[in-house]
Amino acid sequence: MAKKLINVLVVLAVAAAGLSAQPRMSHEEAMQKADELISRLTLQEKCDMTHGYQKFFLPGVPEKGIPYVYVADASTGFRISKTIPREVRAEKSTCFPSSIALAATFNPEIAYDYAEAVGEEFRMVGASVLLGPGFNIYRNSQCGRNFEYMGEDPYLASRMVEQYVQGAQSTGTMSCIKHFVANNTEFYRKRSNSIVDERTLMEIYIPAFQAGIDAGAGAVMTSYNLLNGEWTGQSKYVITDLLRGRLGFKGMVVSDWESIYDWEKVILSGQNVDMPGTDYFYCEDDAASLVAKGVVTEEDIENMIRPQIAACIQFGLYERNLNGEEYKWELKERLPAHAEVAYKTAAEATVLLSNNGILPFKAEGDVLLCGRWANTVPAGGGSSKVEGYDHITYADALRKVLGDRLTVVEFPTAEQIKAAQTVILATGTLNTENAEMAFAMDKKYEDQVRLVVENNPNTIVVINSGGGIDMSAWHGKAAAIVHGWYPGQNGCQAIVDILMGKINPSGKLPMTIEKSFADSPAVNTVPKGANIGKAFLNPNEYFFRVYDVHYDEGVLVGYRWYEAKNIEPLYPFGHGLSYTTFALEKPKISGKGKVKSISADKPIQVSVTVKNTGSVAGSEVIQLYVGENNPTVVRPVKELKGFRKIELAPGEKTVVTFELKASDLAFWDETIKDWKTNPGDYTVFLGTSSARISHTIHLKAL
Question: Can you give the pLDDT at residue 89?
Answer without folding.
Answer: 66
